Amino acid sequence: MDYVTLRLRPDGRSWTPRFAQAINSQKCIGCGRCYRVCGRDVLQLMGVNEDGEHLPIVVGEDDDDDGEYEKKVMTISNPGNCIGCEACSRICPKKCYTHAPLPVEAA
Ligand code: SF4
Ligand code: SF4
Questions:
Q1: Is the Cβ atom of 94 under 6 angstroms away from ligand 2?
Q2: I want to staple 37 with a disulfide (CB 3.0 to 4.6 A). Which of 31, 59, 83, 87 is the partner?
Q3: Domain layout of the chain by residue ranges
Protein backbone atom coordinates (compact mmCIF):
# COMPACT_ATOMS: atom_id res chain seq x y z
CA MET A 1 0.00 0.00 0.00
CA ASP A 2 1.27 3.50 -0.81
CA TYR A 3 1.30 6.18 1.88
CA VAL A 4 1.31 9.95 1.69
CA THR A 5 4.96 11.03 1.44
CA LEU A 6 6.36 14.54 1.34
CA ARG A 7 9.53 15.71 -0.38
CA LEU A 8 10.14 18.95 1.45
CA ARG A 9 13.64 18.43 2.79
CA PRO A 10 16.43 20.56 1.26
CA ASP A 11 18.51 17.47 0.55
CA GLY A 12 15.68 15.83 -1.38
CA ARG A 13 14.95 13.08 1.12
CA SER A 14 11.30 12.19 1.50
CA TRP A 15 9.32 12.05 4.73
CA THR A 16 6.25 9.97 5.48
CA PRO A 17 4.17 11.57 8.26
CA ARG A 18 2.94 9.09 10.82
CA PHE A 19 -0.18 10.37 12.52
CA ALA A 20 -1.13 9.76 16.15
CA GLN A 21 -3.73 6.98 16.23
CA ALA A 22 -4.04 5.97 19.86
CA ILE A 23 -2.59 6.42 23.35
CA ASN A 24 -2.43 3.37 25.59
CA SER A 25 -4.40 4.49 28.66
CA GLN A 26 -3.07 1.56 30.69
CA LYS A 27 0.53 2.67 30.22
CA CYS A 28 -0.03 6.45 30.36
CA ILE A 29 0.99 8.16 33.61
CA GLY A 30 -0.47 11.55 32.66
CA CYS A 31 2.89 13.31 32.86
CA GLY A 32 1.97 15.83 30.15
CA ARG A 33 5.30 15.67 28.31
CA CYS A 34 3.65 14.87 25.01
CA TYR A 35 1.21 17.73 25.41
CA ARG A 36 4.05 20.19 25.92
CA VAL A 37 5.82 19.25 22.68
CA CYS A 38 2.71 19.12 20.50
CA GLY A 39 2.09 22.49 18.93
CA ARG A 40 -1.04 21.44 17.07
CA ASP A 41 -3.75 21.31 19.74
CA VAL A 42 -4.25 17.58 19.20
CA LEU A 43 -4.08 16.36 22.78
CA GLN A 44 -6.20 16.69 25.91
CA LEU A 45 -5.27 15.57 29.41
CA MET A 46 -8.14 13.91 31.24
CA GLY A 47 -8.61 13.17 34.90
CA VAL A 48 -10.29 9.87 35.69
CA ASN A 49 -12.36 9.95 38.87
CA GLU A 50 -13.41 7.04 41.05
CA ASP A 51 -16.55 6.56 38.96
CA GLY A 52 -14.48 6.16 35.81
CA GLU A 53 -15.58 9.51 34.44
CA HIS A 54 -13.08 11.36 32.25
CA LEU A 55 -12.87 15.09 32.98
CA PRO A 56 -10.72 17.51 30.96
CA ILE A 57 -7.94 19.18 32.90
CA VAL A 58 -5.18 21.63 31.97
CA VAL A 59 -1.56 20.42 31.89
CA GLY A 60 0.42 22.22 34.59
CA GLU A 61 -2.67 23.44 36.36
CA ASP A 62 -5.08 21.69 38.69
CA ASP A 63 -2.13 20.08 40.51
CA ASP A 64 -3.93 20.97 43.71
CA ASP A 65 -6.83 18.81 42.53
CA ASP A 66 -4.76 15.63 42.15
CA GLY A 67 -6.72 14.02 44.96
CA GLU A 68 -9.89 14.26 42.90
CA TYR A 69 -8.64 11.79 40.32
CA GLU A 70 -7.74 8.15 40.39
CA LYS A 71 -5.32 8.87 37.57
CA LYS A 72 -4.64 11.19 34.66
CA VAL A 73 -4.42 10.06 31.05
CA MET A 74 -3.64 11.83 27.81
CA THR A 75 -6.17 11.55 24.99
CA ILE A 76 -6.34 12.49 21.32
CA SER A 77 -9.10 15.08 21.18
CA ASN A 78 -8.43 16.67 17.78
CA PRO A 79 -6.92 13.99 15.54
CA GLY A 80 -7.53 16.11 12.44
CA ASN A 81 -4.96 18.64 13.66
CA CYS A 82 -2.14 16.10 13.78
CA ILE A 83 0.69 16.59 11.24
CA GLY A 84 2.35 13.25 11.97
CA CYS A 85 5.62 14.61 13.36
CA GLU A 86 5.84 11.96 16.14
CA ALA A 87 7.36 14.42 18.63
CA CYS A 88 4.82 13.18 21.18
CA SER A 89 5.92 9.59 20.77
CA ARG A 90 9.64 10.39 20.96
CA ILE A 91 9.28 12.17 24.30
CA CYS A 92 6.82 9.73 25.90
CA PRO A 93 8.65 7.77 28.63
CA LYS A 94 6.10 4.94 28.62
CA LYS A 95 5.85 4.25 24.87
CA CYS A 96 2.10 4.88 24.87
CA TYR A 97 1.65 6.04 21.29
CA THR A 98 0.56 4.24 18.16
CA HIS A 99 1.16 6.09 14.89
CA ALA A 100 0.26 5.26 11.33
CA PRO A 101 0.91 6.79 7.90
CA LEU A 102 -1.98 7.93 5.75
CA PRO A 103 -2.86 5.67 2.79
CA VAL A 104 -2.75 7.57 -0.49
CA GLU A 105 -6.37 6.82 -1.34
CA ALA A 106 -7.46 8.51 1.93
CA ALA A 107 -5.48 11.70 1.23
S1 SF4 B 1 2.43 13.51 15.89
FE2 SF4 B 1 3.03 15.69 16.22
S3 SF4 B 1 1.17 16.85 15.73
FE4 SF4 B 1 0.53 14.71 16.04
S5 SF4 B 1 -0.06 14.55 18.20
FE6 SF4 B 1 2.09 13.99 18.08
S7 SF4 B 1 3.26 15.91 18.46
FE8 SF4 B 1 1.11 16.48 17.96
S1 SF4 C 1 4.16 11.48 27.54
FE2 SF4 C 1 3.29 9.39 27.51
S3 SF4 C 1 2.97 8.91 29.67
FE4 SF4 C 1 3.21 11.13 29.55
S5 SF4 C 1 1.09 11.95 29.32
FE6 SF4 C 1 1.94 11.64 27.24
S7 SF4 C 1 1.21 9.59 26.64
FE8 SF4 C 1 1.03 9.73 28.87
A1: yes
A2: 87
A3: 19-101
Q: How far is the CA of 75 from the centre of ligand 2 (A)?
A: 9
| CATH 3.40.30.10 fits domain 19-101 | no
Question: pLDDT by residue for the chain (107 residues), tens digit each?
Answer: 889 998 877 788 889 999 999 999 999 999 999 999 999 999 999 999 999 999 999 887 756 566 789 999 999 999 999 999 999 999 999 999 999 999 998 65
Residue of the CA atom closest to atom 3 of ligand 2: 28
Helices (H) and strands (E) in the chain, counts: 2, 5
Q: Whose CA is nearest to atom 6 of ligand 1?
A: 88
